[in-house]
Design brief:
Blueprint lengths: L3 H17 L3 H9 L3 H18 L1 H4 L20 E4 L2 E15 L6 E24 L3 E10 L16 H37 L1 H15 L3 H11 L6 H14 L3 H14 L3 H8 L4 H9 L4 H24 L11 H6 L4 H6 L5 H23 L8
Antiparallel strand pairs: 1-2, 2-3, 3-4
Helix pairs in contact: 2-15, 3-5, 3-15, 5-6, 5-8, 5-9, 5-12, 6-9, 10-11, 12-15
């Protein structure tokens, strides 16, 4: 028993040395990875981002490809057995079209007696991956016929494929909008917090004006001001710019508060006396002192930006077809027919909830990991 004591003491001393010699970012990572929910949220966001970036590869079809024989068709869920018995290979059931005896409308239905085996890396529609590389290889497909894992909409477009493209659009708008707001917040909040005085007073009044602007009427006016001849790309960049221009006040005030509390510290005064410029002091000495908090604020801001884009596109004030986003896809579900006959059109809403929840969990984990008074074990 006595021989184990020196080993335990040596191990504890190595751990203590490792802890006290670690950088701030290492400490944040060590604390963050102990939070399993935060890690799960980050993993989900990584998967969603990967699916969105490489949507052309992972989607069986293009975002506008139609299947005229399967209009508003139900999802073809993967199966391993049917009336013919068990199958080692996953397959999707077939589909048949029946005539409604009352309305005489053609209604697609699942045919469980048919097996269409799932295949990977199959040839399909040609596309340009990332806009650079031409290919016709898709991640999944079937040996014959079509596959619609999430069903189709009223035009026969594959909901699964469109959801992947919508994931890229909605997440990229959230990222771009938050980055624009982040740059504005750094500049405006940094100037106000470092210089103070009358300049700080004017910036705070400007911040209050931006904060009290009613968002919905603002978006309604701007949406009406968008020229109808604008392309999808122009509307996309205008949308991200608007979300960024109205999203900076909260972060700017937090940065201002941090700078006000740090600008008279000894190392800041020493840098000022040595002749360092205001920009260098703010960028090299002040902002890195609380960079972890800035990152946490950024992560927490993503859900609000994504929800803003989704809500605006849902009510027709954001992106316009043929662009595809979560909000645009949910537009097709705001009727009684979709609720009763095609509940699978609400699947994009699950992606919205999953993305917002993942961002929230990861943001909470980063906030706890960035706490300098938390004891690391």
């Amino acid at each position: 028993m006595a021989s184990d004591a020196p080993q335990t003491t040596s191990h504890e001393s190595k751990e203590a040395q490792r802890y006290f010699s670690a950088t701030q970012w290492q400490l944040v990572w060590w604390r963050f990875r102990r939070n399993k929910l935060a890690l799960a949220g980050g993993l989900v966001l990584l998967i969603m981002a990967t699916l969105g970036i490489f949507a052309e590869f992972f989607a069986p079809y293009g975002q506008t490809t139609r299947n005229a024989k399967y209009l508003l068709g139900p999802p073809q869920v993967l199966r391993f057995w049917n009336q013919d018995g068990l199958s080692v290979r996953p397959f999707v059931p077939g589909s048949v079209t029946e005539r409604d005896p009352v309305t005489l409308r053609a209604i697609p239905k699942i045919d469980p007696s048919v097996r269409r085996y799932l295949q990977f890396f199959v040839k399909g529609e040609p596309y340009k991956l990332l806009g650079l590389f031409r290919s016709d290889i898709h991640f999944i497909g079937v040996d014959e016929g079509t596959i619609h894992l999430f069903g189709t909409d009223d035009l026969g477009r594959d909901v699964f494929s469109r959801t992947l493209f919508a994931t890229r659009t909605s997440l990229s708008i959230g990222v771009m909008g938050v980055l624009i707001a982040f740059v504005l917040a750094l500049i405006i909040g940094g100037v106000a917090g470092y210089f103070g005085g009358w300049l700080d007073y004017l910036i705070q009044r400007l911040t209050e004006i931006v904060r009290v602007i009613p968002v919905i009427p603002l978006y309604m006016g701007l949406a009406a001001a968008f020229p109808q001849e604008w392309s999808t790309q122009q509307v996309y960049f205008a949308m991200t710019l608007i979300l960024g221009l109205v999203g900076w006040p909260t972060l700017a005030r937090r940065i201002r508060g941090q700078l006000l509390s740090l600008r008279n510290e000894d190392y800041v005064v020493a840098a000022r006396i040595s002749g360092a410029t205001a920009g260098r002091i703010i960028g090299r000495h002040l902002l890195p002192a609380f960079a972890s908090y800035i990152i946490v604020d950024l992560v927490i801001s993503f859900p609000y930006t994504i929800l803003s884009e989704t809500a605006l596109s849902f009510v027709g004030l954001g992106l316009r077809p043929p662009a595809v986003s979560w909000g645009i896809m949910l537009q097709a579900s705001q009727n009684i027919r979709a609720i009763v006959q095609a509940p699978w059109l609400f699947i994009p809403a699950l992606f919205v909830v999953l993305a917002v929840l993942s961002f929230t969990l990861m943001g909470d984990g980063l906030r706890d990991a960035a706490d300098p008074y938390q004891v690391s074990g």
